[in-house]
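Follow-up to my post from last week.
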Amino acid sequence: MRTYVRKRIDSANKCSYNVYMSNIISGFTTKEKLEILADAAKYDVACTSSGVDRKGKKGELGNSKACGICHSFAADGRCISLLKVLMTNHCVYDCKYCINRRSNDVPRAAFEPEELCNLVIEFYKRNYIEGLFFSSGVMVSPDYTSEKMCETLLLLRTKYHFNGYIHVKTIPGTSDELIAKIGLLADRISVNLELPTAESLKELAPNKNFSKILDPMEKISDTIAAHRLAIGKDARMERANINRYLDNSIFNSRMTIDGEKVKAIGDGRENIGLSRSVNNKTDYTALVPQGKQGGDLKRPFAPAGQSTQMIIGATPESDLTLLETTQRLYQAYDLKRVFFSAYIPINEDKALPAIGTAPPLLREHRLYQADWLLRYYGFQAKELLTEQRPFFNEQIDPKCDWAVRHLEAFPVEVKTASYDVLLRVPGIGPKSAMRIINSRRYGALSFESLKRMGVVLKRAHYFITCNGKMMFKTRIEEDYITSRLADSESKENWRIAHQNEQFHQMTLFETYGAMSS
Amino acid sequence: MNVFTCEDNLESKLTCIYTAWEKAIKVGHSNVRLEVEPIYMSNLFDEYTHVEADNIKAQKVSNSINSKISPDVYISVYYALLSNEDDALDSAYRFLINAFKVGNNAIFAINTPENMRMMELRRRVGNEIHSFVEFLRFHSINNQVYIGHIEPKADVIELVGRHFDDRMPSENWMIIDDNRRYAVVHPKDGDNYIKQLSSEEFERLRQTEGIDDVYTEMWRAFFDAIAIKERANRRCQMNHIPLWMRKHAVEFQG
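User reply:
Got it. Predicted complex:
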């Protein structure tokens, strides 16, 4: 039967396809659909509900907090903030890494718009979720799918008066008009970059191509900028306040991309991944909708900005490539977040790691740490990695790694060091640095008080002096400090790399065949 | 040493600060101490005085902190008074001594142990409020009323209720603190108010926790489906949502 479905999808005959669809849909209850479509959506990483503050209104349901609210944590430790589902997991594409690819034999289902709206509202009222994360497989065509998604969102915002958070993943190849409509209904839009280079994308996602992904991303970011300008805000998204104090920050007003000064949003775009011919003229009206959208809805265009995600570990890119692409996405496309997803082998294919290969969790962890260094600590990708060393040292975190290679700058005296210098010390973060700055004006600091302020002395004590003294007698040598840091972190690193393995108490009466193998 | 004791609520605690300060003007701040009742073990050489809540005195304390120091300092003190930690009340008092000397900067001058302790208390209570905003679960009673139970350590339900006042203004809902046995009630399109629960009321409301509907079931199904088993990480889950906060979260039951 399923082969039959597949054939039908291949032919993409709209009418007969739909008739057939409704037949299969009727076979599942809402609960079963939810299970299938949540299971299919779980590999999407982003589950953030942050970036926009919106007050509630009488007669409506919901508000939104810029800090984001997680509502639960799943067995894998990832937060559940939004109801993460696909509208359908039917898909006409055959991307090799994806569980929902056309050639996979998995149960397929689709939500009816009303059905999904109901689910969102009822979950929201019980405080299970913060909103909806809405993605979909490509049913019939990108436009057909997006239209269905749009219908659902419009229903949710108008008929159901839902005022909470909505994150929409756009389908590559959707027409501009539909993206414009979606942007006005959602809080955050994302386009998945999937892979950092055009070659890898061609290899693993034969139906997608790089410009089809970058094109909407570009238009969305221009439209967000235009909408922000129209209401009197800065064209660029708000960033963490810290960045104002950091001269070297990638979000600084004096920022440069590859040594060239950035003036407007859109500068430096030609450098992403591959050189593609872009018309450099920024078209702010790209997605500005014509006419009224959905009755009295007056909403800003994607107020929480745009995000994307990349798969790591399925293709041979280096950490440097990934991080540089990330930095350019932040600067040239003004993305709010870039997510990384450790590839979990789910499909058998000779172009992919074999099933059973452990997902590169520690590598993913290091990349996220580096991403934070870009966004909150004023680091640049080029500082953290170089052509000679294109991969992170998995034993110690990127900040420690940077510090041990720049011992000439250490130790710093916490009583006098400036904010950006303090922020570069491993073990000191934005909050503890601010506490140090604020409190040292009023009295002396000690290692004890630093600890209570939240400084992680385990890492920091190699790099700081307090009142002219180090905490212990330490040799300021790269190898020595690296080995000490790696040693103290080894347990945690092991835990991240082996987080899903099961343990049990040893007994005398069992044989441990598995252990010797 | 003069020890002033009071009941565990905001008004009593503020009155206690007032009374203790009055005494301290004569005997010095180092000779007074504040404690929250019940006192299990009293010292032989200390003199214990029970302080009864007095709205006017409490108001005076809050007004003078707000106007003479700053609203931000009052928020710190307020959070500390919500805390359930033994030394919280006395710490708030010690912090105020500093704050009246140096003003709003007492919040930043965390070199002294009193100010440092205050920063910690505020952070801890603030985090707890945020956690229960996240992990509170409502049970729907015939789609008419939504009732949620929590067992927080600090006395946070009023502030948790404030969040939902903005979020669900046009629903009837109620948040119940199972330990302190009182509730924040929100009538549809109205304002929040606080209600002390009698034991019959409490027993009756307690049964709402047994009410599961189709959406509870679906939420559990979703919760299980969304986890990636290749990435299972119990310790990480435990760090984010510790066991004591899971007590009333439906996805961890049944």
